[in-house]
Every structure is written in structure tokens, then in C-alpha cells.
Amino acid sequence: MDMYIYYRVLEKNAAALREQVAAVQGWASQEYGIVTGLKRRPEEKDGRQTWMEIYASVPSGFEATLERVVAQAGLAALIDGPRNTEFFVDISTCA
């Protein structure tokens, strides 16, 4: 199962947040072997960007562990609003 987390960030906080997210995703890669990604929408609206963190093939219980690490890293102070989490699974193409 893949986990996608999206949220808004004020442009003035983007550089600091990028460093923090890189550290969190580095931890996820090192501790769990998870392939990660970070994307943003190309446009800004009202000085805000929309970002998406990607965590591929996460193990059961990873979400709670990640939230603890995110809280310890202080990401909430750099994010404008909530972090929204969604999960997706692969669709088999075999009939």
C-alpha cells in the first residue's frame, strides 16, 4: 500500500519545510527501506503551495510511527493547515 500526504505551505516556509521533509523521508528510507518522493503543484495560490509526500509500499502501522516522527521534527509549525493522508493499492492487470 502506498501513502500520500498532502498539505499547504506558505511560500516563505517552503525552504525550511523542504529540509525538514527531506530529513523525515531520509529516516523512512533508512529505517524501513521505503521509497519516498516529494511533489508540489506547479501553481501557487494566495502565497501558498500544495505539497505531496509519497511513501511507497509502507508496512502496517507506519502511519502512526511517521506521525510521531513528524511531530518531533516540528513540521506542523511550517505547514498551513492539516496534513491529509490517503492510501492507494496497486490494481492487478491480470484477469
Layout of SSEs?
Blueprint: E1 2-10, H1 14-32, E2 35-40, E3 48-56, H2 62-73, E4 84-88
Antiparallel strand pairs: 1-3, 1-4, 2-3
Helix pairs in contact: 1-2
What do you see in this structure?
This protein has 95 residues and is α+β, with helices and mostly antiparallel strands. The protein has a single domain, classed as Alpha-Beta Plaits. It has helices spanning 14-32, 62-73, and strands at 2-10, 35-40, 48-56, 84-88. A 4-stranded antiparallel sheet has the order 2-3-1-4, with helices on one face. It is globular, with a radius of gyration of 14 Å.
Return the domain count.
1
Predict the CATH topology.
Alpha-Beta Plaits
The count of strands amounts to: 4
Helix percent reads 25-40%
CATH second-level architecture: 2-Layer Sandwich
Query: Would you identify the regions where 5 or more consecutive residues have pLDDT less than 50?
Result: none
Shape: globular
CATH superfamily: ACT domain
Mean pLDDT figure:
95
The largest sheet has its strands arranged as: 2-3-1-4
Query: Order of helices and strands, N to C?
Result: EHEEHE
Structural class: alpha+beta
Strand content: 25-35%
By oligomeric state, this entry counts as: single chain
The tally of helices reads 2
